Task: inverse folding
């Protein structure tokens, strides 16, 4: 009976759309807590989406696709790291540059290889299968439990579970491991970290590499799990939205993840509200619901709901004092 | 005597040229990998964008828009603000312009309509930049994040608003076409060699804007305070500059300039408001400001370069299907990367080279 209710399908849609943001937001978390602004999340998602779809189609093997996406995204993250850390360039400009360049390059390459207007062919069987939890069939007829166990908890691809498991893992790494302590030190006061013997450049490069790898799953999920093909500019602002969740969640893993889930919920609402007449209000245009996360972020940034405090050394290249 | 700092001619001319060459070199490599000849492509591009008078006219038409968006990013940068919101501000500028035209184009003559349209565009563009500027000045919310958000919000709002402007019986998401009185005078009436191209009065306005920008930023007390704010806000504050006011004003001017970019696109060419008409011009402004180092001459040259890339790239994509127009989005990204983020990439090497000469 719950399948028919809007709220039930809304929740399932939320669980399915949140991972795109969660992977990217956790990636941005590592980069930004180490002191490097990650404006290039969007570009890395798009690059990974293209690489994973193209390779998964050509080899008909999902895992090769995911690996290719990871390699491309990690390489971009290291390029971004080179510009931001070694070259001490403007990190915002570097991020914008990567986003714009990748938006053009992925189209050109997709067109060159597949000639379908910047789209890859449908992946067909080269997609991740949904995992059916044991006992789903037995519980299927039980009201609520059957839906809850079979559709909300179960019945997703492995990347969805990875995304949700990532949150406690990132929390542990950030707050309970030696690396996490050093990472946060580099983002808050790199000179103190340096004086304590931490190699700021190495730590930031490691953070960028982790960010690149995590971000790639976002693109792979978009292309291989959600769509089953690559489409030009298919990331459609997900990277910026992840960044937004980061601001919203105050650069803390759990709150950031909650922000991602909230934004995922809004996008699920937007899809369901399309063309629905509401009593008294009439039709609410989808683009107005689409706008909500951005408006909420501006309000949060304005300090009207909660105070958002960025890592202190964010965006500042580290110059070792002599 | 060994020099420790690069001379001005080196940082102003040599480094940007080296960076531009690097970006084009990477682009040439990609074109090579796509199986086309970079030299031949370059030939087609130069021929269709610069040598052919009609092509040149199109190049300058695109450049007129880019000069305004480039100026918008530049003036904010001079105040130490990175305004990524040019795209949204230009979009809203287009809305202001259109609302003015829809209200007045049947009553006013052309010589009044054009200033009215420009005023509408500038006011709406400035208004869209005001909130991010105010939040930066008073609440410390980073202008980069807020302007990105405002780009998205502008796109979403326009998706809804444009439906209110669609004339009855029409399906296309666009406003009605303005009357002929609202068209910018085209330059081909004076120079018939330009052919049937949309190059118009906006080009001359853009040149005037460059001159005013140069005078205001480098030759006026206001410009001095603006640059002081950008170089060292604390020092400027100590010297009596009202920083938060400066930030808001800089963002207002920046937004107004981005809004004015819509005048060329709409009143100079299409004569109606359509969805996504800025088509990335706001982002190209970032590349232009960085490559031109926020200097009027630099902005002009970069805007013409990008105009040529768009115009030449269009013709090139017709001849070489492997080099679609999106290749130039990629090249744009490369130029931003090399000229903006890695601007001092060649600095140390160039310094060494100059010092070698000194020793000998």
Result:
């Amino acid at each position: 009976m719950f399948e028919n209710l809007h709220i039930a399908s809304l929740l399932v849609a939320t669980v399915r759309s949140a991972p795109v943001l969660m992977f990217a937001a956790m990636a941005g978390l590592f980069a930004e807590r180490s002191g490097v602004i990650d404006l290039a999340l969007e570009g890395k998602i798009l690059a990974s989406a293209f690489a994973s779809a193209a390779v998964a189609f050509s080899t008909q093997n999902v895992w090769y696709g995911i690996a290719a996406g990871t390699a491309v995204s990690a390489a971009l993250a290291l390029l971004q790291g080179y510009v931001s850390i070694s070259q001490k360039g403007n990190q915002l400009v570097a991020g914008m540059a990567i986003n714009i360049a990748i938006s053009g390059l992925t189209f050109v390459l997709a067109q060159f290889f597949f000639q379908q207007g910047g789209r890859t062919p449908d992946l067909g069987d080269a997609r991740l299968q949904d995992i059916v939890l044991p006992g789903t069939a037995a519980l299927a007829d039980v009201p609520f439990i059957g839906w809850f166990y079979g559709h909300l908890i179960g019945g997703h691809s492995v990347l969805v579970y990875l995304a949700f498991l990532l949150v406690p893992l990132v929390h542990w790494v950030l707050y309970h491991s030696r690396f996490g302590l050093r990472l946060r030190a580099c983002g808050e006061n790199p000179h103190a970290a340096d004086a304590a013997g931490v190699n700021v450049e190495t730590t930031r490069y490691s953070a960028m590499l982790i960010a690149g790898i995590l971000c790639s799953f976002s693109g792979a999920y978009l292309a291989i799990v959600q769509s089953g093909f690559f489409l030009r500019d298919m990331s459609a602002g997900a990277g910026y939205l992840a960044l937004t969740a980061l601001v919203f969640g105050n650069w803390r893993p759990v709150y950031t993840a909650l922000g991602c889930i909230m934004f995922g919920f809004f996008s699920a609402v937007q899809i369901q509200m399309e063309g629905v007449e509401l009593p008294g209000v009439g039709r609410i245009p989808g683009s107005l619901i689409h706008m909500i996360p951005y408006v909420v972020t501006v309000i949060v940034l304005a300090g009207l709901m909660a105070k958002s405090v960025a890592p202190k050394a964010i965006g500042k290249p580290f110059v070792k004092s002599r | 005597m060994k020099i420790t700092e690069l001379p001005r001619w080196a940082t102003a001319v040599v480094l940007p040229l080296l960076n531009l060459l690097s970006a084009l070199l990477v682009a040439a490599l990609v074109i090579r990998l796509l199986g086309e000849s970079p030299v031949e492509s370059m030939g087609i591009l130069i021929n269709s964008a610069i040598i052919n008078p009609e092509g040149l006219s199109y190049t300058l038409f695109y450049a007129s828009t880019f000069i305004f968006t480039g100026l918008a990013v530049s003036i904010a940068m001079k105040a130490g603000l990175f305004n990524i919101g040019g795209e949204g501000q230009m979009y809203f500028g287009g809305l202001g312009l259109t609302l003015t035209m829809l209200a007045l184009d049947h009553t006013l003559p052309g010589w009044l309509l054009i200033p009215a349209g420009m005023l509408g565009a500038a006011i709406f563009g400035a208004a869209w930049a005001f909130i991010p500027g105010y939040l930066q000045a008073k609440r410390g919310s980073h202008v980069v994040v807020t302007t990105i958000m405002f780009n998205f919000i502008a796109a979403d709002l326009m998706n809804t608003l444009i439906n209110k402007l669609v004339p009855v019986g029409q399906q296309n998401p666009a406003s009605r076409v303005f009357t002929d009185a609202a068209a910018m005078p085209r330059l081909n009436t004076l120079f018939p060699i330009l052919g049937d191209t949309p190059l118009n009065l906006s080009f001359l306005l853009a040149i005037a804007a460059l001159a005013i920008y140069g005078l205001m930023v480098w030759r006026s007390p206001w410009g001095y305070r603006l640059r002081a704010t950008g170089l060292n806000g604390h020092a400027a504050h100590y010297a009596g500059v009202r920083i938060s006011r400066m930030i808001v004003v800089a963002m207002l001017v920046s937004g107004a300039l981005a809004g004015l970019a819509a005048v060329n696109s709409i009143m100079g060419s299409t004569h109606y408001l359509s969805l996504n008409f800025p088509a990335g011009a706001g982002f190209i402004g970032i590349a232009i400001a960085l490559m031109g180092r926020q200097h009027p001459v630099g902005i002009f040259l970069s805007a013409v370069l990008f105009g040529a890339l768009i115009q030449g790239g269009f013709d090139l994509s017709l001849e070489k299907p492997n080099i679609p127009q999106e290749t130039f989005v990629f090249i744009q990204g490369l130029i931003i990367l090399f000229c903006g983020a890695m601007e001092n990439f060649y600095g140390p090497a160039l310094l060494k080279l100059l010092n070698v000469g000194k020793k000998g």
